[in-house]
Structure formats: structure tokens, C-alpha cells
Design a protein that fits this description.
mainly alpha
């Protein structure tokens, strides 16, 4: 009988120790989840834009940790949480590095456009002026084509102003997108005027 009571006591003691250990891990587990969430939030919109795959990975792992916490498996959270927290804290730096890479590329494109497109506009304007003075148009160029080219040139010049304004406002992505549209329009106009080659390519 005493042996049975002893075994029951040991079982009860073991159970209480397990519960105590579990309870002692609850707060550290809770803090880990909060820290991971804070790190993801701190990474902000840049992380979502520039390293979406990494954000998705961390979010998935955070979800798994939360599921374990809800099941009171605090040990799993305490053991797995630090690695996820490290990944979450790395999001901001990864996003900053990717953003710099993207912005450097966009600025390089803009630098090229800011040189070539004004030259292209000047070349097309000169062609339009020359055709306007001549009594006979070159083969393949009609009066309607010249009139259409003039209209297209005006559109391109207006769009270039918009692109320059966007760049001046710090919206480099929009500026480059608009500059690409300007180049396409100038190439279209140049073709109508019988200009050979790429209108956005500087002469010489």
C-alpha cells in the first residue's frame, strides 16, 4: 500500500514539475512572439516591396510558432523562436540593400535618359522644321505623317516634363517609366519622319 501511495506521490510530483516548467516557459515564449512581430513591423513596407519572399517565410514561421503557443507548446516556441527572430531582424537590412540596388539601377537609367532624350527631341524638332520648309517631302513621308509627327513630338515633350518633375520629386521609378514612354514615342515619331536608327540614341 505504501508503495502505491509513493508511486502516486512521485507521479503527482512529476506532473507538477512538468506544469511548473511549462509555466516558466510561457512568458519567454510570449516575449519571443512579440519580438518577432515587432521586427517584422519595423521592417515596414520596404521589406514587403523589396524582399517579399523573405517576409513571407518569416510570416509563415511566425504563424507556426503562434500555433504552437496556442497549443501551450511553449518549449517549441522557446527553442524555435530565436532563429525566427534573427530572420525577422534581418529583414530591414535585406530590404535596405535590395532597395539600394534597385535605386542605383534606376538612377543609372535616368542618367542615360536625361542625356539622350533631350538630344532626341532636338533631332526630331530639327527634322520637323526641315520638312516644313521643303516643298517636296522625302519618299515614304506624307504630309499627314509630318502633322502626326508634330503632334507626337508635343506629346513627348510634355511627357518628358512630367518625367523630369517626377525625378525632381524623388519618384525615380515613375520618372524612369515616363522616360521609357517618351523614348517609345520619339522612336514612333522618328519612324514617321523617315529618320533612320534609334531616335533616342545620341548622334555621333
Amino acid at each position: 500500500m505504501k508503495r502505491i501511495h509513493s508511486l502516486k506521490f512521485l507521479a503527482a510530483l512529476a506532473a507538477s514539475l512538468v506544469l511548473a516548467a511549462c509555466a516558466s516557459q510561457q512568458e519567454p515564449a510570449k516575449k519571443l512572439l512579440a519580438d518577432v512581430e515587432s521586427a517584422v513591423t519595423a521592417a515596414g513596407a520596404d521589406a514587403q516591396q523589396y524582399v517579399p519572399d523573405q517576409v513571407a517565410s518569416v510570416t509563415q514561421k511566425l504563424g507556426d510558432l503562434k500555433a504552437a503557443f496556442d497549443k501551450q507548446d511553449y518549449k517549441a516556441v522557446v527553442e524555435g523562436g530565436p532563429a525566427v527572430l534573427t530572420e525577422a531582424k534581418a529583414l530591414a537590412d535585406a530590404a535596405a540593400a535590395k532597395k539600394k540596388e534597385v535605386m542605383d539601377a534606376l538612377n543609372a537609367q535616368w542618367s542615360t535618359f536625361s542625356t539622350t532624350l533631350p538630344q532626341s527631341v532636338a533631332a526630331v524638332e530639327a527634322r520637323v522644321a526641315a520638312l516644313g520648309k521643303g516643298k517636296k517631302l522625302p519618299a515614304g513621308v506624307t504630309k499627314d505623317a509630318v502633322a502626326s509627327a508634330k503632334s507626337g513630338l508635343d506629346e513627348a515633350k510634355a511627357a518628358w516634363i512630367e518625367a523630369s518633375t517626377a525625378f525632381g520629386s524623388g519618384n525615380v521609378q515613375s520618372a524612369v517609366d515616363k522616360a521609357k514612354a517618351v523614348k517609345a514615342k520619339l522612336d514612333e515619331v522618328a519612324a514617321k519622319l523617315g529618320m533612320s536608327g534609334d531616335a533616342a540614341k545620341p548622334a555621333g
